[in-house]
């Protein structure tokens, strides 16, 4: 989105009670360092509506601790001893081992220290073992050499004895061996001779057997030849029988072929008959189908004739209904016109004193009031000469009606007068001597209608219920009045007789209107009738013929083909196999052996050498004491309410996060822990929830200071737990600091310090520094200047809005016309949320867009949603629920609470779009940083005539509200005027007198279309309805009111003749004059130029009378009416007959004092008022 800067201006929030309220807010980029900001630097706006406080720079404690992240100071040390190590050293020294001791060695764990001691103990033990082994090896070698010398002497004696015996044994063995070989050779020769004799006998026997078999086989061959001849004769007889059977089969086949021939002919005859029957059947079906087709044509013809008749009847009915509607419309129009005419007639009644009370007895007053239906009330007082003693009141009604005439005049008809009641209210004692009072009502003919004597001291009321007939008619032309009409007289006779008159007057306020002609009432049409053509009779469907089946002759059974005889094979006797001729045997030779005598080898004695005697060795070993030192680390992390690690992430403002302080376990071998304390200077804008923190970290004592620093000390029970088993490792409970983020564009670095104290030492370690961010930062002032920013898309969170014309160009700040359609393009700003990590509880607060329009100007019900699309082109209309909010009181409690918490302030009516499924919407568009663009159109309210038209937008993201810019358009008042001049450029003669034959000029002052407007001109027109019966149109002209600039740069100077750019039409029959500028010319007028023209219409007065004239002005479809001008033209003047002065009647005594002067003044005032009414009538 665009980056806003404050240079003497800012965004505004709209209020409907107070207009535009400036909402400039300054926000500074927060970094962990101490960067200075110049007073001239541009600071970004913060358009937030809730949690608007800006994050302050880090404190010195925060900055210092962050710079020390990961550093350690001090150490925790304790010595480690081992009994086995001590014993091993003593034993080694006693064994002669040289034991030396080096400096003390420090280990980071008890197990490591113990392992070191164990290793030393092992080395010392090994040295001791080696020393003792060396001593034992020397003694063992000396002893072994003595034993070897004796063994060598014994070995020599043993070998000598063995050699003597060996030589004697070898000689005896050789002699026995030679004798044995000689005996074996003799036996072998004898066996070979026997074998050769047997082989010769076997060979000769096999030759004799072969000769015997060959003789027997010759006899077998002779017997086989005889058997073959007998078999051949039997085979010839079998073959002759086989051929005879085949001939019989062929005969039967020939007979069956003849039978098939006869059957085929019978079948053909049956098929011929079936075809004839089927043809006759199908012919009858075709006849029926043809008749049905003819009947269908007849039906269609009848339907067409009926449809034509129906159409004619319908057309006649429509014509009748149209004529009837025209008739009814004319009747209704005439009735409405007459009703409207009659409603414009004024009726009045007044009391006029015909006599006056005697001044001696004081003034008497009589008044009259009336209603439009003719009801009246007359009131008068009674004076006894000193005071008012009572009041009289007469009620009644003038019964009248009106008739509208064809020429536009009205006839007022007074039918009668009804007198209802007379009542008298006494208010004081009558002090007059003469108390004979009479109240009377007298007709204009002098007839007494009612008389009531009384003394003036008693209150009474009487019902008269009397009606007198009047039957008077008065015709009133438009804008004319009747003279005062006397209907009756009232008398309150006392000492002196006084009376007053009831005067009625009518005034016709209507303009002259043409007579409405009612056409004759149409007669309903008589529907036409059609006589249908009768259909042809359809014959019955024929019976389908049964198939004719022929009587077929069965064929004879053909015997099976006999099996072809196979020639028998004679039973031939097999010849005996003749053995192969044997191989003549070879002579067998015996295997004779020879003897080699053995030679004796004497034994040599084995002499053992002496073993080596080891040298004496003194072993040396190095040992050292050990101690344990531990430097436990600490780690800080930050998670959201979903337990997701958000270190380095962009998260929502207002979301709950937890800083987790984790310390490494205390190792075994430690000293007593006297104190364990954590210090955490929390970043500004993180609101700690102490209750939730204490719940999650019950083992710690929590304290905070005004700067937000949190101190957490291990409780006594936790210290006791640390010191219970110091030879074992013990874990340190995690601390969870729970709270919420209060700033837009927030950077929350957080580091904590751990201090561990023992009786002899103290150890301090600084944690790492995780960081989280909230969106809304100005990208021109990055959080990490010159480095990688974790939120490259981060910027101000602000919905934007513009208003565009039909070409999509911005028209913000420009003027519009009353019939304009205002199209707003607003953007719900999500790009700064790209890559955000938000917990479920934040997402489920939802995403809402609000369009807050000016109620007085914009018609909220006219809204058209042109489109709602995401930045990737998705149509998201169906993902949002649209609500037209007429008042915040109509919202449900959840939305009320959400709007209140968000801090947005829409006033009156507004629209809101709510994401139906917040989680899916967040994942698909918010987290991807895809802005949502709303294209909305509104119309202006008809009653809104002029002023500024404002529209503002808000967005609610995860419970946070942000206001957008206010777009403004101006609706100027379309003011046009009309005047009548004695000549073009002359003097105004409005309400003046014009003679018959004089020329007058009507000036039509056009509206000046302002510059900086949002629209192009396509219509600028004057329409003047001249009174053609009195004014004869002569000519016209049109001139520029202002300098006009065209698209090609041409400037038409003020006062120039613009006739060439206009079209003029005058209708002689109706008197309508119309001057319109050509559209192609108007299209050339640039928006940056003013435009305005005055038209002058010159006419000649041709008839006497009052001539009224009003014009209509049109600009781009907007109609404006001018004021009405009037001129008067009198008939030729007639001589005036002088009237004689009527002498003033002498003053008569009356019932009140000084009555004459007051009634005289009243009469004069009444006459003046009547004169003023007459004058106003002419001016109007």
From TrEMBL:
Signal sequence annotation: 1-39
Domain of life: Bacteria
Biased composition (Polar residues): 122-131, 299-312
Keywords attached to this entry: Cell wall, Membrane, Peptidoglycan-anchor, Secreted, Signal, Transmembrane, Transmembrane helix
Disordered as annotated region, ranges: 109-133, 164-186, 218-239, 299-318, 522-546, 562-590, 769-795, 1129-1152
Transmembrane segments: 1156-1175
Domain Gram-positive cocci surface proteins LPxTG: 1148-1180
Biased composition (Low complexity): 225-239
Any Pfam family hit: BspA_v
Full protein name: Cell surface protein
Organism, scientific name: Streptococcus equi subsp. ruminatorum CECT 5772
């Amino acid at each position: 989105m665009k980056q806003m800067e404050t240079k003497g201006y800012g965004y505004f929030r709209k209020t409907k009670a107070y207009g535009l309220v400036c909402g400039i807010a300054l926000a500074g980029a927060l970094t962990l360092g101490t960067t200075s900001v110049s007073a001239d630097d541009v600071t970004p706006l913060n358009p937030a509506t809730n949690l608007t406080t800006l994050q302050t720079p880090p404190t010195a404690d925060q900055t210092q601790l962050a710079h020390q992240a990961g550093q350690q100071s001090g150490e925790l040390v304790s010595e480690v001893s081992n009994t086995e190590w001590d014993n091993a050293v003593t034993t080694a020294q006693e064994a002669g081992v040289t034991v030396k001791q080096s400096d003390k060695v420090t280990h980071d764990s008890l197990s490591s220290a113990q392992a070191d001691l164990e290793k030393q103990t092992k080395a010392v033990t090994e040295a001791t073992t080696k020393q003792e082994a060396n001593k034992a090896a020397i003694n063992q070698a000396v002893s072994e050499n003595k034993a070897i010398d004796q063994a060598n002497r014994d070995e020599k004696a043993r070998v000598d004895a063995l050699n003597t015996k060996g030589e004697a044994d070898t000689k005896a063995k050789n002699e026995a061996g030679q004798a044995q070989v000689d005996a074996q050779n003799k036996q072998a020769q004898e066996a070979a001779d026997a074998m050769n004799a047997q082989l010769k006998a076997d060979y000769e026997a096999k030759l004799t057997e072969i000769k015997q078999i060959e003789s027997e086989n010759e006899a077998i061959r002779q017997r086989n030849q005889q058997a073959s001849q007998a078999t051949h004769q039997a085979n010839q007889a079998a073959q002759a029988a086989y051929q005879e059977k085949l001939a019989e089969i062929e005969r039967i086949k020939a007979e069956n072929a003849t039978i098939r021939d006869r059957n085929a002919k019978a079948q053909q005859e049956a098929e011929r008959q079936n075809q004839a029957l089927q043809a006759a059947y199908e012919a009858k079906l075709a006849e029926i189908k043809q008749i049905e087709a003819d009947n269908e044509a007849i039906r269609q013809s009848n339907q067409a004739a009926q449809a034509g008749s129906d159409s004619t009847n319908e057309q006649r009915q429509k014509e009748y209904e149209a004529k009837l509607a025209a008739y009814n419309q004319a009747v209704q129009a005439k009735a409405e016109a007459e009703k409207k005419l009659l409603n414009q007639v004024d009726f009045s009644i007044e009391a006029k004193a015909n006599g006056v009370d005697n001044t001696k007895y004081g003034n008497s007053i009589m008044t009259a009031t009336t209603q439009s239906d003719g009801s009246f009330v007359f009131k008068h007082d009674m004076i006894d000469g000193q005071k008012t003693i009572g009041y009289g009141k007469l009620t009644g009604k003038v019964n009248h009606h009106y008739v509208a005439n064809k020429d536009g005049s009205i006839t007022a008809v007074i039918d009668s007068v009804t007198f209802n009641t007379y009542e008298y209210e006494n208010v004081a004692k009558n002090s007059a001597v003469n108390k004979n009072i009479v109240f009377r009502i007298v007709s204009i003919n002098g007839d007494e209608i009612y008389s009531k004597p009384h003394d003036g001291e008693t209150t009474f009321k009487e019902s008269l219920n009397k009606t007198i007939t009047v039957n008077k008619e008065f015709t009133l032309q438009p804008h004319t009045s009747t003279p005062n009409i006397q209907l009756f007289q009232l008398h309150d006779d006392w000492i002196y007789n006084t009376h007053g008159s009831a005067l009625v007057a009518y005034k016709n306020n209507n303009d002259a209107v043409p007579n409405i002609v009612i056409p004759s009432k149409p007669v309903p049409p008589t529907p036409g009738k059609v006589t249908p053509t009768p259909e042809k009779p359809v014959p019955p469907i024929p019976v389908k013929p049964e198939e004719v089946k022929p009587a077929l002759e069965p064929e004879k059974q053909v015997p099976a083909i006999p099996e072809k005889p196979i020639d028998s094979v004679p039973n031939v006797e097999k010849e005996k196999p003749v053995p192969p001729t044997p191989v003549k045997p070879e002579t067998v030779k015996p295997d004779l052996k020879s003897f080699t005598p053995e030679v004796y080898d004497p034994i040599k004695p084995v002499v053992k050498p002496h073993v080596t005697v080891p040298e004496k060795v003194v072993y040396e070993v190095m040992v050292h004491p050990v101690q344990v030192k531990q430097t436990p680390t600490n780690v800080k992390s930050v998670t959201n309410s979903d337990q997701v690690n958000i270190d380095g992430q962009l998260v929502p403002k207002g979301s709950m996060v937890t800083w987790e302080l984790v310390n490494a376990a205390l190792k075994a071998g430690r000293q007593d822990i006297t104190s364990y304390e954590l210090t955490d200077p929390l970043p500004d804008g993180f609101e700690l929830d102490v209750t939730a923190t204490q719940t999650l970290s019950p083992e710690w004592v929590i304290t905070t200071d005004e700067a937000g620093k949190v101190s957490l000390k291990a409780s006594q029970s936790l210290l006791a737990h640390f010191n219970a088993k110091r030879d074992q490792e013990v874990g340190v409970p995690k601390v969870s600091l729970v709270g919420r983020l209060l700033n837009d564009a927030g950077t929350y670095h957080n580091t904590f310090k751990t201090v561990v104290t023992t009786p002899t030492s103290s150890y301090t370690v600084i944690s790492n520094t995780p960081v989280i961010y909230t969106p809304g930062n100005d990208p021109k002032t990055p959080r990490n200047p010159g480095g990688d920013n974790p939120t490259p898309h981060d910027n101000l969170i602000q919905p934007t809005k513009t208003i565009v014309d039909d070409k999509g160009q911005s028209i913000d700040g420009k003027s519009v016309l009353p019939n304009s359609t205002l199209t707003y393009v607003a953007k719900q700003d999500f790009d700064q949320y790209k890559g955000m990590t938000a917990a479920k509880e934040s997402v489920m607060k939802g995403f809402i867009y609000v369009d807050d329009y000016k109620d007085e100007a914009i018609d909220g019900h006219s809204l058209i949603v042109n489109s709602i699309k995401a930045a990737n082109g998705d149509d998201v209309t169906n993902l949002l629920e649209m609500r037209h909010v007429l008042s915040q009181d109509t919202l449900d409690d959840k939305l009320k609470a959400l709007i209140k918490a968000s801090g947005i302030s829409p006033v009156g009516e507004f629209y809101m779009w709510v994401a139906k499924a917040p989680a899916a919407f967040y994942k698909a568009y918010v987290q991807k940083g895809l802005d949502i663009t709303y294209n909305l159109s509104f119309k202006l309210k008809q009653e809104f005539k002029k002023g500024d038209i404002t529209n503002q937008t808000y967005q609610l993201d995860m419970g946070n509200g942000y206001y957008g810019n206010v777009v403004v358009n101006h609706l100027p008042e379309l003011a046009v005027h009309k005047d009548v001049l004695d000549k073009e450029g002359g003097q105004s003669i409005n309400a003046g007198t014009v003679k018959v034959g004089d020329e007058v000029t009507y000036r039509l002052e056009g509206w000046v279309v302002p510059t900086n407007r949002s629209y192009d001109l396509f219509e600028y027109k004057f329409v003047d309805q001249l009174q053609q019966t009195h004014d004869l149109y002569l000519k016209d002209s049109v001139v520029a009111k202002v300098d006009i600039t065209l698209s090609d740069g041409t400037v038409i100077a003020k006062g120039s003749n613009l006739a060439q750019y206009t079209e003029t039409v005058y209708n002689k029959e109706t008197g309508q004059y119309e001057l319109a500028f050509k559209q192609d010319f108007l299209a050339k007028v640039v928006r940056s130029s003013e435009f305005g023209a005055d038209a002058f219409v010159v006419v000649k007065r041709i008839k006497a009378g009052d001539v009224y004239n009003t014009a209509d002005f049109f600009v781009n479809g907007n109609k404006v009416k001018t004021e009405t001008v009037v001129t008067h033209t009198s008939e030729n003047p007639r001589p005036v007959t002088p009237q004689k002065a009527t002498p003033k009647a002498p003053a008569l005594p009356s019932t009140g004092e000084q009555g004459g002067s007051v009634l005289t003044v009243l009469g004069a005032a009444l006459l003046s008022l009547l004169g003023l009414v007459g004058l106003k009538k002419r001016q109007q």
